[in-house]
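Justification of resources, computational component.

The compute hours requested in this renewal are based largely on the per-chain cost of generating structure records like the one below. Each record pairs the submitted sequence with a full structure-token output. That output is archived, and it is also reused by downstream analysis tasks.
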Amino acid sequence: MSKARSPVTALVAPLVTAPPLTRSPRQRKASGRGRNSLLTLGLVTLLGWEAGAIGRSALATVEPRSGSIAAVLAETGPEQAKAPGLATAEAKGSRRALRFVQQPTVMANPNPQVPLAAVLQFEASESVETIVTVSDGTQTWTLSFDPKTHPQLDPKQGLPIVGMRPDRRHTIAVEIKNAAGRTHRANRVLAFTTPPLPENSENFPRLEVSASEPERMEPGVTMLSVRRRRPTLGQREAVAFNQGFGMLLAVDSAGEPVWFYRTDSRINDFEILQNGNIAYLTQDYRMVEIDWLGNTVNTFWAKNRPQGPTEGIAIETTTLHHDIDQLANGNFIGLGTERRILENYYTSETDPNAPRATQPVMGDVVLEFDRQGQVLWSWNTFDFLDPFRIGYETFSGYWDRRGFPGTLDWTHSNNVIYDSKDDSILLSSRYLSAIFKIDRASGDLVWILGDPAGWSGKLAEKTFTLTGAAEGTERWFYHQHSPSPSHNGTVLVFDNGNFGTFPFEPPLPLVETRSRAVEYEINETDRTVTQVWSSEIPGEEPVLSFAMGDVDALPQTDNILLSEGLLLAREQVAELEWEEIEPKANVWTRVREMTRGTPPEVLWEVVLDSGIGPDVVGWVFYSSERIPLPYQED
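The structure output for this chain reads:
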């Protein structure tokens, strides 16, 4: 992602095409012995991954004539090394206020959870904006750290250098600018080598790029919430293996990692916050806020979670799960739950005549809370919906595996999003195969989008009739994820398509199930909804996503970013029944950028497919977002 040439870019430009150093680090060290040479070695141990992944930093400069990277550590020692033309600038700088009190240095990120980042440190004579130009010989990009927009960042403590690809030598040029617009360049160009990716395929996914047209794609990098999965077969070890791993991964248009973060709990949704930090939700009902070096800034946790108290700010709820968003006022909106005991409740989703019993049932609660943990607004599904309208997987054991033994899963909401156009909230209930629109001011339920079967009374009056833009194209969604309003008033949905009906009708066989992204146009006046777009491509082999999935309209290109979640291995679809997926299925995943045409074109595709077998580690993208590279200059 090249940018316009600034004075710093002009300084570094010769490095982009320069041949690599031919001398080994050992030779450079030997030749510079006794001359105050500096070689900083950062050993990064990746949370028990492969030891020996090393981030290396050194001081270098540019030969004034040849334009190659001078082996200044061998010739003059770094204390005497100057970039061409900077000696005069430094002399002038000594007569003015703006200067480096301590010259810039770069080192490997001390936090091993984010190994592809580095830390830049220096001290200036006054408050400054820092402009950093980074190059790996192929890519060049500029990062900007302005104290007005990033007041939490202090160059004396360290600035995050991000966007670097693995196992490459990078040059880093530093310039500072004060409030009056005066600039000053560092007298040396720094160098840093990123560590390679972990070699163990159980610790890092192997991405295959099968399509990439960068000139037609939305700008930015793609951030992915990554999960790993072995078939459980009822084994406690496999469950722990699956749930004890979480990763956020950012890749470029070539599918190459430019940043990743590893933690010890499965990650659900993530959000880029207004302050530039990242928030994510964990399997154990925490919301964790981190900076781009992976350092924890804040933790919020569900006060009544089965794991008990932890560090951070407690939220008055039983869980925090699936989805989190930040509102314009700085508050958060997310999903909690309430567990109620219901009498005369179902004991089966396949037999309507099965005996009834008193059952613990989990329903969802939409929460708005502030940074002090105060719940300011809530909407409880038990208060507005019929808990006796159930969907398939109510008895799947979802909450059993998450600390609530014997608790049935009624609504299983997976997404909540605020729409500022009319101060409303969209809530997605997977098991009810429904999307609810809620008026935030009054709390009223405005409408129910989805198959109207099973709704009765006043709730039935809030449903829609489905039509297709072309005859025969209409199809309701089932077990959906990630509904989002688009800029033109439509609603995009990832339709997993699971089961294709409700209890107590027999479900659709796996071989007849199709997963897709779909777009609907909603007419609230006459209560009709029209299907206007689908991601399905004629002649392409269909896919079945049993869980997860994400779809977004991209603002600049109007393309669609589609993450298809937990895709079942095609070879197993004809062999398995619905109830056999969790213990036996192998999985794969892919993320696509597509045009919005009919049929759509695939502009970008990244696939993770590890194959089939009881011990095979499959990889899944829970969600995806196209974001700007943090701190990158426009």
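The longest strand covers residues 332-345. The chain has nine helices and 41 strands.
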